[in-house]
Amino acid sequence: MGVPQSRTEMILARGLRKEFTVRVKAGRLRRHKQVRAAVDGLDLRVDRGETVGYIGPNGAGKSTTLKMLTGVLTPSAGEVRVCGLRPVAQRTRLALRIGVVFGQRSQLWWDLPLRDSFDLLRHVYRVPAAEHAARLRR
Ligand SMILES: Nc1ncnc2c1ncn2[C@@H]1O[C@H](COP(=O)(O)OP(=O)(O)OP(=O)(O)O)[C@@H](O)[C@H]1O
Ligand SMILES: [Mg+2]
């Protein structure tokens, strides 16, 4: 007998959906509310040991998906389990099992080594050299 399938499912999403209500301009003073789906019916399964890239254009819904997988955002519809846990309801337990890094696209430059990005920001925020060096060492 093999390992039960559910044991190897690390990430499972079925019909995952997230809607945001946005205010859109309708004339000079008028705004009306509009519901937009940022993620619309995502089915995803990632098993133990798998490495997966999740790619798509700006605004495709990648960050929104990750926020639902980590319990930061509550899905509007659908099912999601990560490490067998319900991300929103069991967020603290889940946090002990996962690691997440969200990019700060305004503060890191593709073409620069990380160290140079930090050096540039040191000047922008006027961080004294000694303090900057200490932070880098840490
Ligand atoms: N808090 C929010 N309120 C309203 N709309 C939002 C909110 N967060 C995201 N959106 C919208 O949802 C859609 C998906 O955004 P999301 O940030 O998930 O995209 P992304 O794939 O991560 O994009 P990028 O490649 O730019 O990081 C976009 O249209 C975005 O404007
Ligand atoms: Mg994003």
Low-confidence stretches: none
Number of domains: 2
Strand content: 25-35%
Radius of gyration: 20 Å
Annotation, overall tally of beta strands: 3
- CATH fold name of the largest domain, please? Rossmann fold
Could you name the CATH homologous superfamily of the largest domain? Answer: P-loop containing nucleotide triphosphate hydrolases
Quickly name the level 1 CATH class of the largest domain.
Answer: Alpha Beta
CATH architecture tag of the largest domain: 3-Layer(aba) Sandwich
* Helicity range: 25-40%
What string, H for helix and E for strand, traces the elements in order? HEEHEHHH
Distance between the termini: 49 Å
Tally of helical runs: 5
Specify the biggest β-sheet. Answer: 3 strands, antiparallel
Report the average pLDDT across residues: 91
**Small-molecule components bound:** adenosine-5'-triphosphate, magnesium ion
What does this structure look like?
With 138 residues, the protein is an alpha+beta fold. The protein has two domains: 5-102, Rossmann fold, CATH 3.40.50; 104-138, no CATH class. It is built from five helices and three strands, in the order H-E-E-H-E-H-H-H. The protein starts with a helix and ends with a helix. The mean pLDDT is 91. Bound molecules: adenosine-5'-triphosphate (ATP) and magnesium ion. Magnesium ion is lined by residues 62-63.
